[in-house]
Write a structure and sequence with these properties.
With 63 residues, this protein is of the alpha+beta class. Helices cover 24% and strands 16% of the residues. The chain is built from two helices and two strands, in the order E-H-E-H.
């Protein structure tokens, strides 16, 4: 499982934009289902982090 974390600003009241680095890093395609968690922050800094879950490989081996 690959996870991406990014901070962004609302483009309109109900729309956010997923950064290209996240979309490419997660290999997102049109129609993919994604999980979204939203939290309002006070920082002005925008950042991106992409990481692999090391347990995903272990879970695959155990299946």
């Amino acid at each position: 499982m690959v996870n991406g974390l990014f901070f962004t600003e609302l483009k309109s009241k109900t729309n956010i934009e997923i950064p290209t680095e996240i979309a490419n890093g997660l290999l997102l395609q049109e129609g993919d289902k994604i999980e979204v968690s939203i939290k309002k922050i006070k920082t002005k800094r925008l950042d991106i982090k992409i990481s692999r879950n090391p347990l995903a490989k272990l879970l695959t081996i155990l299946d």
